[in-house]
Write a structure and sequence with these properties.
This protein has about 220 residues and is mainly beta. It has one domain: hypothetical protein yedk fold (Alpha-Beta Complex). It has helices at about 10-15, 85-95, 190-195, 200-205, and strands spanning about 5, 35, 40-45, 55-60, 75-80, 100-105, 105-110, 115-125, 130-140, 145-155, 180-185, 215-220. The chain has a 5-stranded antiparallel sheet with strand order 2-1-7-8-12, with no helix packed on it. Strands 3-4-10-9-6 form a 5-stranded mixed barrel. It is globular and about 50 Å long.
């Protein structure tokens, strides 16, 4: 699971993913921001007021709000294997409310030494991560406030040479059944398929990034 990442600036997001500025007010920050669960963060989605297809930038709460404001459990991450069955996620998934979460880097805990050492993950090509997510727009029935929110998708990484090293292992489970998790990278050439494709087409992109995509290391060594 991912619980911390660095968001790029609005200008970098628009430039990298070719989001037009026409008739769109400022929607994100002019400086990079470290994002934690339940904080405000940016995401890219298919424009909801466009009868055709275009991309738009939006910002919302990191932690999907699908039915109530005060959630009893974390929804900042969603297991991709449970998108059809989990109550919080199955509605947005069925409606095609997929998004790209821009990240300059993200952090994960490594417990190989017996204690938590944070690792930072950037891209080896120097670009930005476009992480797979779902978004939702919810109206508070008491106040009529419109709440924008999003969740970051994850996938099993037990067989991945790098990502299987992250997170605290469960001593009750064998090494190949730990359910170690990884975020899902949507490459720039696949963004339109992710945002506007069918569920079947989007499902094809729920896969682990090759190990050579990553530039990773302990924060204590940086």
């Amino acid at each position: 699971m991912c619980n911390r990442y660095v968001s790029p600036t609005e200008a970098d997001i628009e430039r990298f993913w070719h989001i037009g500025r026409a008739n769109q007010p400022r929607w994100w920050r002019e400086q990079p921001a470290e994002i934690f669960p339940r904080a405000q963060g940016p995401f890219i989605r298919r424009a909801i007021d466009d009868s055709g297809y275009s991309r738009e930038g939006a910002s919302g709460r990191w932690g999907l709000v699908a039915g109530e404001w005060s959630l009893k459990y974390a929804t900042n991450n969603a297991r991709s294997e449970e998108l059809v069955s989990k109550a919080s996620f199955k509605g947005p998934w069925a409606k095609g409310q997929r998004c790209i979460i821009p990240a300059a880097s993200f952090d994960e805990p490594n417990w190989e030494s017996g204690r938590n050492q944070w690792w930072r993950f950037s891209r080896a090509d120097g670009g930005l991560w476009g992480l797979a997510g779902l978004w939702n727009r919810w109206a508070d029935p008491k106040t009529s406030e419109i709440v924008e929110s999003y969740t970051m998708l994850t996938i099993n990484a037990d067989a991945h040479p790098l990502m299987r090293r992250m997170h605290k292992p469960d001593p009750k489970l064998p090494a190949d059944q730990q359910d170690k998790r990884s975020v899902i990278s949507i490459e720039r050439e696949d963004v339109d398929q992710w945002l506007a494709g069918t569920i079947a087409e989007a499902s094809e992109l729920l896969r682990l990034a090759p190990v050579e995509t990553f530039d990773a290391g302990s924060l204590t060594a940086l």
